[in-house]
Design brief:
two-stranded antiparallel ribbon; 39% helix; mainly alpha; 133 residues; binds zinc ion; globular
Length: 133
């Protein structure tokens, strides 16, 4: 399983978590705690242990103590509605790889789509009146 795929799994788990928590990401001040919060949301058939998705396969292959993925704590507890999807093109992403500079934003397809929907799509439960636009 490649680096991009692992990051995509982490991002998908973020989305699944948010769907069940009013659109918010978990509050987590370090990688350990975000992995713990996301563990129930990893696809069961693909990944059983969060430790597997926490390390780039490249770093894991060449280093005795490979660096793990980086969790950007500015996404901690954030609502998907408040995230600007454009920032992913500037490498500001929830998870990034210390070995692959661009991989973090390449792996955000699912996440970007969900964030875009949360931000721009109309909420069917709300009327336009009083939206303040
Ligand atoms: Zn990598």
């Amino acid at each position: 399983m490649g680096c991009e795929r692992r990051l995509a799994i982490l991002n998908s788990a973020l989305v699944e978590y948010a769907k069940e928590h009013d659109g918010r990401f978990p509050s987590a001040d370090q990688l350990e705690s975000i992995l713990k919060a996301l563990e129930p949301y990893f696809s069961q058939d693909r990944i059983r242990y969060s430790v597997l998705v926490a390390v780039c396969p490249l770093g894991g292959a060449y280093e005795r103590h490979p660096k793990r993925y980086e969790w950007d704590t500015s996404f901690s507890g954030v609502s998907m509605r408040d995230i600007d999807p454009d920032q992913f093109f500037q490498e500001k992403v929830p998870f990034s790889c210390p070995y692959h500079e661009q991989m973090g934003s390449r792996a955000t397809f699912t996440l970007t789509e969900q964030i875009f929907n949360a931000r721009y799509s109309k909420d069917p439960n709300k009327t336009d009146a009083g939206d303040g636009l």
